[in-house]
Design the sequence.
């Protein structure tokens, strides 16, 4: 079976010899972008080619076991309550942030007992689109001019696909000291400069951005709307990102302009009502004078 998050963005599936976690951002094809992969430790048994599929079982003893043939697991991921007596029922769930969480029932509520991904910065979109995850510190925005106080860095939807980027107007955002959270399992091309990596993305209609490492020459192109990047203390790692015009407006600025618009509308309404009232009084006054003169 496949585990799917409640928002439909993330899924967990079994590969031939690993557990894979996939994200369905715009532009991804089935099964989606592989953002995390757990390979077995093979401490007690080994996975054999052609010996059948693997399966995963949630054990009552408090671990997630991976099996192929026989009773010995090829991998064991222990929970915090591993082999503790009386911990109650257990369950695992793929959460809306893409993390696999294990729980046990403690008489009145479900308590967290296991996290597949321990660091939120290793999740694909922990800080949202165009967010920047700072390990141990929290979230900010790729664009330093934007505030993360509203909980997000952009307000406009960016779920477009195909060659729409060739027909849309976009601005360019560059940032040093960033890398992808899943770079270990992403494909890359070796290039000898950041400019060449950037140009390769700039000329590609389906490319939303690129991340380049000057020390290794690895160029990672991003063929889906920009999600969360990870901050690193390394100026040789640089990023190039396309931002649709209007997508970078934060909620505070948008709310301010909306509020000013409503205020101006209210003032005009009051002035209009006052002018109508004064005009009516003037007309009534003239009518009264005419009647007296008549």
Sequence:
């Amino acid at each position: 079976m496949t585990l799917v998050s409640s928002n439909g963005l993330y899924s967990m599936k079994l590969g031939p010899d690993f557990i894979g976690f996939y994200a369905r951002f715009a532009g991804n094809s089935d099964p989606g972008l592989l953002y995390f992969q757990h390979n077995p430790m093979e401490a007690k048994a080994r996975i054999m080619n052609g010996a059948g599929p693997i399966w995963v079982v949630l054990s009552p003893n408090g671990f997630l076991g991976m099996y192929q043939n026989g009773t010995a697991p090829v991998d064991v991921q222990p929970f915090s309550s591993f082999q503790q007596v009386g911990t109650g029922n257990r369950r695992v769930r793929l959460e809306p942030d893409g993390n696999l969480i294990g729980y046990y029932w403690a008489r009145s509520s479900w308590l967290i007992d296991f996290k597949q991904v321990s660091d939120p910065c290793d999740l694909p979109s922990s800080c949202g689109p165009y967010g920047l995850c700072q390990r141990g510190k929290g979230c900010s925005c790729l664009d330093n001019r934007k505030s993360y106080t509203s909980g997000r860095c952009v307000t406009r939807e960016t779920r477009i696909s195909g060659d729409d980027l060739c027909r849309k107007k976009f601005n360019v955002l560059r940032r040093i000291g960033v890398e992808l959270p899943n770079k270990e399992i992403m494909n890359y091309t070796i290039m000898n400069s950041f400019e060449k990596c950037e140009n390769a993305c700039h000329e590609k209609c389906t490319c939303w951005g690129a991340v380049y490492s000057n020390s290794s020459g690895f160029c990672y192109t991003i063929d889906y709307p920009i999600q969360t990047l990870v901050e690193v203390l390394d100026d040789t790692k640089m990023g190039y990102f396309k931002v649709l015009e209007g997508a970078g407006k934060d909620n505070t600025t948008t709310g301010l302009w909306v509020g000013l618009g409503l205020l101006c509308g209210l003032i005009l309404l009051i002035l209009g009502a006052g002018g109508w009232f004064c005009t009516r009084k003037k007309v009534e006054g003239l009518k009264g004078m005419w009647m007296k003169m008549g």
User: Anything to note?
Assistant: The first helix runs from residue 194 to 202. The first strand starts at residue 3 and ends at 4. The radius of gyration is 28 Å. Residues 177 and 235 are 5 Å apart (CA to CA).
